[in-house]
């Protein structure tokens, strides 16, 4: 029998991302409504702005935009984080970045599993913001021990799934039949279960410690809690949401609207209240409810260098501290006038990362015209072109805002900031990748290639 061809990690990730979207659409109909709205707005933006369309076609984003989304899950134990890391590796998703949200009153720390490298990102940029609950932040030792014991009993991955993972780790490519089986088994991890694994009293106690703790501990597995499509105009989608029966949170997280978008802007709609059957000592289910799942949209802009990111963090902190009676949006816009808003300015000041390419004019030019020019000179002469690299990651302050918008009333609890990164990486079973290194490598590789194409490898 002829061997069945192997789909490879990029194809498995794309199939998984689509399967996850279909599942969430059937579980949460408002997500479907949001997808339709985002698709309509994206189409209108592209129709109205041929320059943007050409730009996105050049960078490969036009092809991926309809399939682009991120999800989020919350895990309970170190073993779960390690298992999930192994499952995502089959789909070419690696842990990038470390986000400590305890300081912002959310008892988790997180990483983003995502593809790295130009080809993989272009094939399907699906990402999952993955948080590990920090039970050590539960004050009551008895409750903490109970939560740990409940979590120790659950198994979120099936034996068949882990057998496929082990095959992949041993260097055997999954064939297309196994790839489909892998997607179906992996999907089960993230499905919603309307029956809790605990009785209502334990749920109530954990909920009182922190709603997120109840969300993680009381269910069979880490249900996907949102899936986020990428829009080209978040202000427009936000404004149109109410007409489609969706109430967004008040402010958009991240930078203000700009001519040259940077990083990530996000907004969400409130979590749904869902019916849950709790267990009881006599075996009869007890009816209750739980709110966890919500909707979110995002608009992505350029990845910033370390200097750019420091400027962003400084301006954002300033706007948040000094809104002083003014609407926050207004304060944010005012403060961010200090952030250059032309691609050329961002590049020359070393604030954003770019992908370089030799232009047809550059390739056709006489060597004598190219020699003696530096990188800026080659750009000014039209021999070298550059486009900003898309920010593929998340923002801790924004993530905290997204979490909090869904935690209901009663302001954020304060947790003492602590350095838990080493514990997170030990649980994960490997260090997380540094996102700035990834962007810097992409930029350097593109510049090296472009200069070689112009016979200017001397630069
Ligand atoms: C994750 C919240 C953070 C984002 O896009 O920043 C997030 C969660 O609620 O589990 O999704
Ligand atoms: Ni999100």
Structural notes for this entry:
It is built from 21 helices and twelve strands. With 459 residues, the protein is α+β, with helices and mostly antiparallel strands. The protein has two domains: 8-301 and 392-427, Uncharacterised protein PF07063, DUF1338 (2,3-Dihydroxybiphenyl 1,2-Dioxygenase, domain 1, Roll); 354-388 and 429-459, no CATH class. Helix 1 crosses helix 9 (176-189), helix 5 packs across helix 20 and helix 8 (159-169) packs across helix 9 (176-189). The protein has helices spanning 8-27, 29-48, 50-59, 61-64, 78-90, 118-123, 141-153, 159-169, 176-189, 200-209, 211-217, 234-240, 306-321, 328-335, 343-348, 360-364, 367-370, 375-380, 396-405, 421-428, 435-453, and strands at 69-75, 94-100, 108-114, 127-133, 195-199, 226-229, 264-269, 273-279, 286-291, 295-300, 354-358, 384-388. A hairpin with a 6-residue loop joins strand 8 (273-279) and strand 9 (286-291). The mean pLDDT is 93. Bound molecules: 2-oxoadipic acid and nickel (II) ion. 2-oxoadipic acid (OOG) is lined by residues 72, 74, 129, 131, 225, 266, 394, 398-399, 402-403. It holds the Pfam family HGLS.
């Amino acid at each position: 029998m002829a061997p069945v061809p192997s789909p490879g990690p990029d194809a498995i990730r794309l199939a998984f991302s689509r399967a996850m979207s279909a599942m969430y659409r059937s579980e949460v109909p408002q997500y479907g409504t949001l997808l339709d709205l985002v698709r309509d707005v994206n189409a209108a933006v592209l129709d109205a702005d041929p320059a943007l369309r050409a730009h996105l076609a050049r960078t490969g984003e036009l092809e991926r935009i309809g399939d682009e989304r991120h999800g989020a899950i919350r895990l309970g134990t170190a073993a779960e984080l390690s298992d999930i890391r192994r499952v995502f590796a089959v789909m070419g998703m690696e842990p990038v970045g470390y986000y400590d949200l305890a300081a912002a009153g959310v008892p988790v720390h997180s990483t983003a599993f995502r593809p790295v490298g130009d080809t993989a990102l272009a094939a399907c940029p699906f990402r999952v913001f993955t948080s590990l609950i920090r039970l050590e932040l539960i004050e009551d030792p008895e409750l903490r021990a109970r939560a740990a014991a409940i979590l120790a009993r659950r198994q979120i991955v099936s034996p068949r799934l882990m057998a496929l993972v082990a095959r992949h780790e041993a260097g055997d490519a999954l064939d297309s039949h196994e790839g489909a089986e892998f997607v179906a088994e992996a999907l089960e991890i993230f499905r919603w279960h309307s029956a809790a694994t605990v009785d209502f009293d334990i749920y109530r106690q954990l909920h009182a410690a922190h709603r997120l703790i109840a969300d993680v501990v009381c269910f069979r597995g880490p249900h996907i809690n949102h899936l986020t499509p990428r829009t080209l105009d978040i202000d427009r989608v936000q404004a149109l949401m109410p007409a489609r029966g969706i109430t967004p949170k008040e402010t958009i997280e991240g930078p203000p609207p700009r001519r040259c978008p940077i990083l990530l802007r996000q907004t969400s709609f409130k979590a749904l209240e869902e019916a849950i059957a709790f267990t009881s000592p006599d075996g009869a289910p007890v009816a209750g409810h739980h709110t966890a799942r919500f909707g979110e949209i995002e608009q992505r802009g350029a990845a910033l260098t370390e200097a750019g990111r420091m400027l962003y963090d400084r301006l954002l902190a300033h706007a948040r501290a000094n809104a002083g009676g003014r609407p926050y949006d207004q304060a944010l816009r005012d403060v961010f006038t200090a952030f250059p808003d032309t691609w050329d300015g961002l590049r020359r000041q070393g604030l954003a990362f770019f992908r370089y390419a030799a232009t047809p004019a550059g390739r056709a030019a006489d060597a004598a015209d190219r020699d003696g020019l530096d990188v800026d000179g080659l750009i000014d002469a039209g021999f070298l072109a550059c486009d900003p690299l898309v920010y593929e990651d998340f923002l801790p302050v924004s993530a905290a805002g997204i979490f909090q918008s869904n935690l209901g009333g009663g302001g954020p609890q304060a947790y003492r900031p602590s350095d838990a990164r080493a514990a997170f990486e030990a649980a994960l079973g490997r260090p997380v990748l540094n996102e700035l290194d990834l962007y810097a490598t992409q930029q350097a590789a593109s510049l090296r290639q472009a200069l070689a194409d112009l016979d200017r490898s001397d630069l």
